[in-house]
Amino acid sequence: MTGQELYRKARKRIPGGTQLLAKRPEMFLPEQWPSYYSKASGSEVWDLDGNRYVDMSHNGVGACILGYADPDVDAAVRAAIDAGSMCTLNCPEEVELAELLCELHPWAEMVRYARCGGEAMAVAVRIARARTGREKIAFCGYHGWHDWYLAANLGSAGALDGHLLPGLAPAGVPRSLAGTALPFRYNQPGELEQIVAQHGPDLAAIVMEPVRGQAPAPGFLESARHLADRAGAALVFDEVTAAWRMNAGGAHLRFGVRPDIAVFAKAISNGYPMAAILGSGTVMQAAQDSFISSTYWTDRIGPAAALAAIRKMQRCGAPRRLIESGTRIQDGWRAAAERAGLAITVSGIPPLAHFAFDAPDGAVLRTLFTQAMLERGFLAKNAYYATCSHTADQIDQYLTAVNDVFRELARAISAGNVLKQLRGPVAHAGFSRLT
Ligand SMILES: Cc1ncc(COP(=O)(O)O)c(C=O)c1O
């Protein structure tokens, strides 16, 4: 069965086709994307149809900094399986990991665990609410699928637009949560200040990524810290995706601003489910005032994978390598666009690099880019999440292909036949119901 055939079957059995919006084939190349893999190793992916690709896209949606099936992390996981991955007693690795995380983040004293980013953020929000006895959350950016977050779209359907994924629908979220999640934009301290002025006494937390699409403007993170202190709210840094890429540990360490809680997930364990909620002792003790508990938050594989991944990322100088390859790609996109006469905007920290076509039919161009890169053996879209597994040769080959494809796109624009060259529908840009 081809990947496309299997996906058609999946859409009948699985509402929305996949478990993660960012893995929907419609987000890349509707009706043409390989959709399923038979094997993934390093930066290579084999689909169900006998094709091999180099993954120059999200690389496991940012979960595999060391590359797919990393031998050292996998060996630690195999050892955890051989020693019994589940038991009535607790695994010692969770204490070892807590010590390591607190060593790396000297401001932190205590750690709780979960397994996924969204749920770990929900734990952080619960702890902040338990600690303050307040309900409102000021936030910026994307933080998962849970009620506390989607509540922002109960008030105005577009509140979450611009926070990474447009169109997130809050059906099923209690209407009584309307007004509890208050959005502000990154690098707009005035917006946060206004929320604090209006809702300060009701504010449980300020929730944000310390960095992502752009560097923090001078004083922005400091002002979030100051405003949290003024309101008596917890400052929660979501490090689910940003951490471990620019430095060992949370990206906030680079900027010298201390949160009350930092949340880690997919970036710490190279493809195995693991999440950590790290905080100061006083804030984290509030976790004891609320019921926060789940069976699979105790499995051995997650902490074993995180310990092995963190140690390897440190050993091999992962951040330096990710910054280097991300910078090469960002520079390469700019140079290729200039040579082809295409207008693009490049953004993101180098390890989480993005570009956008500055054209009214940007979504069509992006889809055609993915189609043409797929023909050349690359899984690619307008984003590159760097991994340590990409070689200099692979990056060279990728950039040569980008050069050719950007020229093709420029020719198609001049000929007015961009849409005609697509062999399927245009890729989706945000959340929408599949029909
Ligand atoms: C900043 C941030 N927070 C939370 C999440 C949600 O994590 P998960 O998909 O593991 O639930 C993501 C996922 O992309 C993220 O980037």
Report on the structure:
The structure is a single chain. This protein has 435 residues and is an alpha/beta fold. It is 39% helix and 14% strand. The strands form 3 sheets. Strands 4-10-9-8-7-5-6 form a 7-stranded mixed β-sheet, sandwiched between helices. A 4-stranded mixed β-sheet has the order 1-2-3-13. Helix 7 runs parallel beside helix 8. The radius of gyration is 22 Å and the shape is globular. The protein starts with a helix and ends in a 14-residue tail after the last helix. Bound molecules: pyridoxal-5'-phosphate. The site of pyridoxal-5'-phosphate (PLP) has 13 residues, from helix 4.
Q: Keywords for this structure?
A:
14% strand, four-stranded mixed sheet, 15 helices, binds pyridoxal-5'-phosphate, alpha/beta, 435 residues
Bound molecules: pyridoxal-5'-phosphate
Distance N to C terminus: 23 Å
Instruction: Write down the overall mean pLDDT.
Output: 96
- Lateral strand order in the biggest sheet: 4-10-9-8-7-5-6
Task: Outline the biggest β-sheet.
Answer: 7 strands, mixed
Low-confidence stretches: none
Give the helix level as a range of percent.
25-40%
Structure summary, number of beta strands = 14
Using the CA coordinates, give the radius of gyration: 22 Å
Content-based structural category:
alpha/beta
Instruction: Note the beta-strand portion.
Output: 5-15%
What is the oligomer described by this structure?
single chain
* Overall geometry: globular
Helices and strands, in N-to-C order?
HEEEHHEHEHHEHEHEHEEHHHEEHEEHH
Work out the helix count: 15
